Amino acid sequence: MKxxxxxxxxxxxxxxxxxxxxxxxxxxxxxxxFPYITGVYGGAAFVLxxxxxxxxxxxxxxxxxxxxxxxxxxxxxxxFKKLAPxxxxxxxxxxxxxxxxxxxxxxxxxxxxxxxxIYKSALGGFAGFTSPDIAAAAFGAFVSDPLKPVITHAxxxxxxxxxxxxxxxxxxxRWNGILMPSLAVIVIVLAVxxxxxxxxxxxxxxxxxxxxxxxxxxxxxxxxxxxVAMGHAFFTLSLGMGxxxxxxxxxxxxxxxxxxxxxxxxxDTAFALMAGVAVFTxxxxxxxxxxxxxxxxxxxxxxxxxxxxxxxxFGVLFFLLLAIAALTSSIxxxxxxxxxFIEEKGWSRNRAAWVFGVxxxxxxxxxxxxxxxxxxxMIFKMTIxxxxxxxxxxxxxxxxxxxxxxxxxxxxxxxSLLDELRIGGPKFNISITIATVLLVxxxxxxxxxxxxxxxxxx
Length: 458
Description:
Elements: H1 14-25, H2 28-40, H3 44-72, H4 76-83, H5 90-122, H6 132-143, H7 148-165, H8 167-195, H9 207-214, H10 223-236, H11 243-248, H12 257-285, H13 300-307, H14 311-345, H15 349-368, H16 384-412, H17 414-422, H18 432-454
């Protein structure tokens, strides 16, 4: 293995790191998944449990990933080799690399759909979507096409590869600095538009969307909803897939990890809530169904834009929002795989990004075709797309997070974690005993999420 530490790039500033980490966290999960699972599982009560899950799962695992990354200045596999040499713990890093690999293969497919819908909206393609059923039929025709989803998947992967080939400063840092402010502006514009929409009928109001999102009714929060919220806490923060550990490895010792974690989690949560405001105020004002499930974004919202004044413009903005959010996450996922082959195998960045970007694209092609020509191929009664999503979301991410927490408690030790967190930050006055208890509680939460996935309860 080449000594990559000597030539390792670092983030130019704290703001650059926070924006990059927030970009990794803020993705399709915030705009596509969060609104529809909130709609399905009862609105505000689900949101509150999700926020609690972020605190119990998200904060500890994120700090562990960043601390390990900064301590070792290495990719996920190399990091565990440094902390526990001549042991099988490096397999935790391998799991992270594989998770990022698999997730990006189907994540890029969905991101490609958003590119197609930007184009469709710009050409006034939503005008004929007078009902969600018509929009759903058009979406079904698109995803079942034997060519179009593959083309949009390819375009998105090329965009991802081009950014990653430029490196940490010129690629990840520069483009996150452009894309993240753009995301903020677009989501605010869409939220304001949703809040100012008049009701389609006298009894309808955008304010009902705010009540749905922020006024809790715990009778609607089921056990399954609680488990979904815990799992989403992992997915939305890019935990357990090596992305945060890799980003942490580009940090210098002056960074306050705890403060940065708070900024990223606040940004990620605020963005999800703003996206929820934009979606649900619009949905309620125009009298559509908030619990529409996964079809909310591609079935219901295009029909809503067809009824909205200036709908073509706001349709373009919404799907541009989705595409940018997806891109800031996808570059972090490809960076995990790229960093591994640069540091462990001595490859050039350009070679690693292009070779594995193309391989990820090829692995994603069956997912892109799983709603059409490959729709009859089932794996455990799931389409190829659904199987990859299920495998990563239910198994790989929670298992990776759980193993990291257990590794910290029993091998690296809580004291070592606290020592790393204190570097570049305040004294972080918390006893080893209390910190260990918090880590154990976090491990229990992650274990529940993982076991629930094993038995199909979430």
